[in-house]
Amino acid sequence: MAVSGAPATPEELKARIEARIPGATAEVTGDGHHFNAVVSAPAFAGLSRIAQHRLVYDVFGAEVGDRIHALSIQTKASTTESIA
Amino acid sequence: MSDETTHPLREQIQTAIDENPVLLFMKGTPEQPMCGFSARTVAILQSVGQPFAAVNVLPDPRIRQELSTLSNWPTIPQLFIDGELVGGCDIVTEMYESGELQQALGLENAAAGEPAPEPQAPEAAPLSIENRL
Hints:
Chain A is of the alpha+beta class.
């Protein structure tokens, strides 16, 4: 599915996030270069924002900044009601 | 890759992080950001009245490579406060809107919860000049 050189799609990013992060739910929008991902996962509980975002970035490795030109991330621990 | 002494550039980056309490690695300069995400982060820091040092990663691609290796963070901008990576544009925006950024910076009476300020520079021009890895 992640064919190198093929344009990235929101559907691909969503599927890969949900496959890699246990229990994750992702809503991804984007134009093929700039993407926005809203990700909820129980795995985020107790982690700093930095650590949460790293889990999402790690799904894509070096593709971020290259094939996936920009990826904005908002994360939520799905077992807590609110971060704020 | 494991021998840190062979990476003078990485040492310079670490020194800059250690010596500047608030340091932003960005594309372009605060006066002339070359990317919308960097521009937004600059606008937030300026709106809370926080002086900060800035490093432009664009002149040498190795700066970005070494920074990302050191920080384990793939994107630019990157904001460091007291030597710790706080995050990129998304996290800085969230923390600004919740007031956590102002707390982390020690700005006691800064208002929280306001929408993040838009960069003053027109977006079209800076966004068109983004660099590649």
